[in-house]
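Hi support team,

I've been running sequence recovery on a batch of backbones for a student project. Most finish fine, but this one hangs at about 90% for roughly twenty minutes before it completes. I'm not sure whether the input is malformed or the queue is just slow. I've pasted the structure tokens below so you can try to reproduce it. Let me know if you need the job ID as well.

Thanks,
M.K.
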């Protein structure tokens, strides 16, 4: 669900920035330059999400372990929940997939920009 929502967010953001992208194209940037710039922009936007979700997951697991130690019997205390590094790797993989989908979406949106129409509507 996060993957789909982030991809839709990128698509909507690029569609709303058509005039900005057309101005960059008029000033000599290539589509490849814009894809690189926007890809880096979205990587910088989405990376803190991964960090915050990792920190919040570790905190929730710590709270669960604390609660089980204090309020449950000995059998439940054996269920010690820990944050596994592979969980972080899964988050990184999801982030990479979102960025690849975002780059594809950016490329498709840039192909649809009609420079003449966008520049005329700017006036």
């Amino acid at each position: 669900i996060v993957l789909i929502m982030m991809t839709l967010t990128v698509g909507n953001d690029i569609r709303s920035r058509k005039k900005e992208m057309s101005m960059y194209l008029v000033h000599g940037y290539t589509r490849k330059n814009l894809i690189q710039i926007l890809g880096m922009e979205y990587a910088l936007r989405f990376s803190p999400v991964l960090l915050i979700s990792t920190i919040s997951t570790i905190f929730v697991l710590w709270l669960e372990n604390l609660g089980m130690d204090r309020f449950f019997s000995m059998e439940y205390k054996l269920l010690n929940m820990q944050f596994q590094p592979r969980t972080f790797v899964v988050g990184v993989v999801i982030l990479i997939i979102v960025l690849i989908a975002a780059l594809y979406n950016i490329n498709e949106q840039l192909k649809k920009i009609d420079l003449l129409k966008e520049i005329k509507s700017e006036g």
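--
Follow-up from support: It reproduced on our side and the slowdown came from queue contention, not your input. Residues 31-71 form the longest helix (41 residues). No action needed from you.
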